[in-house]
Amino acid sequence: MTGGAEAAAVRQVWSALGLPGIIDVHTHFMPKPVLDKVWQYFDSAGPLLGRPWPINYRADEAGRLATLRAFGVRRFTSLVYPHKPQMAAWLNQWAVEFARATPDCLSTATFYPEPGAAGYVGVAISGGAQVFKAHIQVGDYDPNDPLLDEVWGSLADSGTPVVIHCGSGPQPGRFTGPGPVRRLLRRHPGLTLIVAHMGMPEYDDFLDICLESQAVHLDTTMVFTAFVDQLMPFPVGTDPRLREAGERILFGSDFPNIPYGYREALDALTALPGVDDDWLRGVLHDNAAQLFAIELPSPLHPGP
Name one GO molecular function term (predicted). Predict the structure, then answer.
């Protein structure tokens, strides 16, 4: 599918629902050297994952921004994450500048369990960070590390959402799974967490956590697609919890690091049994618009 045809196909999905566009809470924009290393990982990850993982939207930054905007994505994120100490503050500085230059990007920040983390997280919050990213698998850290106590406290007090990759997919880590997150929420029950990939593959546990904790959300990143169904399928059936948690399920894509077209992620949602247009409108736009206080466009100026 050509670029223009693909954009038209994506826009048809949300326009048919009467939406002004999509809000995608799980997209990645990073400093080029960091993103290059991420792409190198996926290029070589085939033997580890059991199948190739091609990057479908491998383009320069301007091209990737143009693609999202052509799709009608109204807001997106620049999810950055460190894999070692003394990296997070630098990533945050980059993300601040990116958000200033890219007004449709939610200002994003990150952290790592290290001395000084509370300080730079506080600076990010006071500077207007709208969302944080925590990657438990890649960072290989326990979210309950004492070095993060003040970080989580500040995030809970400010109500700033955190997209947290804490499930054990595509590969388990030492601290992934529902156990560490349950312990974290017992200590900081007010945390606004957005569980990436709906907690893949521990979907069942994380759906329960979402329903138990009013501030916990789930993002749909890659879930329900044919690619993930071959690796870690979601036991869809007619699970009523998908509807029960509907107001706290947010659309995420993992753009640009996805091995299929953007439209496929939307089709996987619209094909789910037991969901209706109201559920889809919430997931694709309205739930995130409420969480991040994103205003609807004026009727005089429709569009993303």
Answer: carboxy-lyase activity
